[in-house]
Design goal:
Elements lengths: L1 H16 L1 H54 L2 H15 L2 H29 L7 H7 L2 H17 L3 H26 L5 H28 L11 H32 L2 H16 L2 H19 L3 H37 L9 H14 L3 H7 L3 H26 L1 H27 L6 H10 L1
Helix pairs in contact: 1-2, 2-4, 2-5, 2-6, 2-7, 2-8, 2-9, 2-10, 3-4, 3-6, 4-5, 4-6, 5-8, 6-7, 6-8, 7-8, 9-10, 9-15, 9-16, 10-16, 11-12, 12-13, 13-16, 14-16, 15-16
Length: 444
């Protein structure tokens, strides 16, 4: 009996206290820290500036984020795969060449993009100074994400996240807290300057971490190879990242353009609560991803169907619980931003219902990605973007923030149902919650 217990302990120990488990826990903690500090920043900025001023900040940061994502060309996601691949081969020369190529590419493109955003500040309107200062964040944010991808590819999961998710938000929280307690005359430009300072500080930390990793590698002579191939391989990553970030930021940008800063500001609490509703879903899919790959490679359709069905049930239950808690707490959450933000409290219910449906349709996007069907994945994202932009253009001029929420709600529903249908057609696997009940009826 003791021998069996020792064997069991030896089997469970790596899963509970092994390196991968420690990195997963560390990654979760840094993510929760980032979400908490990000929410605190939003509340303090809204309190300092009101809905109008906060809307100006939100539009400038959203635009800088989208432009920085475009300037990356997908190199940050490619870096994760490429660095891990060449490290496994111990091809240190190729690793150095790739890192230099990626940094050079991102620096050049992001600086040019920043000048384009700064040029947009010459247009008349309430965003002039905000866009000019926000343009400084473009190269900082783009290069930051690239260094994060390079460090992550080296296997240092927590170290890759600390600069962006911890250092940046510590600096941001301290500076915005000082502005709040000091009761100075705070402007949107000053808040954006705080964001730029925090990005520059965390970028320096990322550079130190990456520099230490590279300094430990054997010194080799760098040769220019594979650059055209790397650029071609980065484009699918760019498409996915760009659709993803546009889906997150397009509501803010359209509101800022069509309805003005105040409606863009009033929309922000809702936009920040929407991803929080899917936290449990993300955690479940992180654990599910390798299991999907194993079952698919082994051609074990029964095990794969069982796993995705159970994950859909767990995700739907957890997401429903989170949504219910957020809806109940929404009066207090929105009041923290300021009295004027409470007027759109009822819109949170719309987003909550859509996210529950999203969770109930299961891990269809993950299934498509893990089985290599990136064409369907990108196509579904493109359709979702067309729906969100089209409805936004149609509804926002007349309804403001409720129009943006209606467009986002429709986009979430299209995203989830379309991915579910594409995954079912491509793999024969029903990722939805309904698969569990239909299987039980067949068994009975």
């Amino acid at each position: 009996m003791d021998g069996k217990l020792n064997v069991l302990k030896g089997t469970l120990a790596p899963s509970v206290i092994g390196p991968m488990a420690r990195q997963s826990i560390g990654s979760l903690l840094t993510k929760l820290f980032r979400l908490g500090c990000g929410f605190l920043f939003a509340v303090l900025a809204a309190r300092l500036l009101g809905a109008h001023g906060y809307g100006i900040v939100a539009v400038a940061i959203s635009l800088a984020t989208v432009i920085a994502t475009l300037a990356l060309f997908g190199t940050n996601e490619l870096a994760v795969r490429e660095v891990a691949l060449v490290s496994a081969r111990k091809s240190w020369n190729e690793l150095t060449v790739f890192a230099l190529w990626a940094m050079r590419t991102v620096i050049i493109v992001s600086v040019v993009s920043a000048f384009a955003m700064a040029g947009a500040s010459l247009l008349p309107g309430p965003y002039q100074r905000a866009l000019l200062l926000g343009s400084l964040a473009v190269p900082l944010f783009a290069l930051h994400l690239l260094l994060r991808g390079l460090i992550l590819g080296s296997g240092s999961v927590v170290a890759a996240q600390i600069p962006m998710d911890v250092v940046r938000w510590i600096v941001t929280s301290l500076l915005i807290g000082l502005l709040f307690l000091g009761r100075w005359a705070v402007t949107p430009s000053l808040v954006i300057f705080v964001v730029v300072i925090a990005l520059a500080t965390s970028l320096a930390v990322s550079a130190v971490i990456l520099g230490r990793y590279l300094s430990r590698l054997p010194r080799t002579r760098a040769e220019a190879t594979n650059q055209a191939q790397w650029l071609a391989q980065s484009l699918p990553f760019l498409a996915i990242a760009l659709f993803g970030i546009l889906g997150t930021e397009i509501g803010t940008l359209l509101l800022g353009w069509l309805s003005g800063p105040r409606e863009a500001g009033l929309y922000q609490p809702i936009a920040k609560l929407a991803p929080l509703m899917m936290l449990a879903n993300e955690a479940i899919e992180t654990a599910l991803a390798p299991k999907i790959v194993h079952s698919w490679e082994e051609d074990d359709q029964v095990a794969l169907q069982r796993r995705v069905g159970r994950s859909a049930l767990a995700s739907a239950l957890a997401t429903t619980t989170i949504v219910a808690a957020i809806v109940i707490a929404s009066p207090y959450i929105l009041r923290a931003f300021g009295p004027e933000f409470i007027r759109y409290q009822w819109l949170i219910v719309w987003i909550g219902i859509a996210q529950v449906v999203n969770a109930a349709t299961g891990a269809a996007p993950l299934l498509l990605a893990m089985t290599g069907d990136m064409k369907s994945r990108i196509g579904a994202q493109a359709v979702t973007m067309v729906v969100q932009v089209g409805l936004g253009l149609a509804l926002i001029p007349a309804f403001g923030a409720p129009g943006a929420v209606a467009a986002l709600t429709a986009a979430i529903l299209v995203w989830s149902i379309l991915h579910w249908w594409l995954a079912l057609r491509a793999t024969g696997i029903d990722t939805s919650l309904l698969a569990i009940f239909s299987r039980r009826r067949r068994t009975a």
